[in-house]
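Recall that a protein's primary structure is simply its ordered list of amino acids. Everything else, from secondary elements to tertiary packing, is in principle encoded there. The following example makes that idea concrete.
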Amino acid sequence: MIQRASLHRACVALLLGLHLWLAWTASRGFGPTGDENAHLAGGAAYWLRDDFRIHAENGVLAQRWLGLPFLAAAPHLPPPDDPVWHDNHYVPLAEH
């Protein structure tokens, strides 16, 4: 019985190690998906400016949640009179 439990623990450890290795090697070669920057910009706009026009398709709660760690980086948003805000384009906003 002890040998079987040890075998299970070894398999779990091996699979966990394989998963961590795959995640690490993939994260070095791949960046965020195409619209993750837009989610971050939308979340920052929601928190910092209470402006819900930027990338509102995915809902406020999800982007506010995603934007919380982003706020720790003290993102720089363009001033409210910048054309980015009037055009509602999240790509230039995400590039700031």
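The longest helix spans residues 2-29. The chain has a mean pLDDT of 79.
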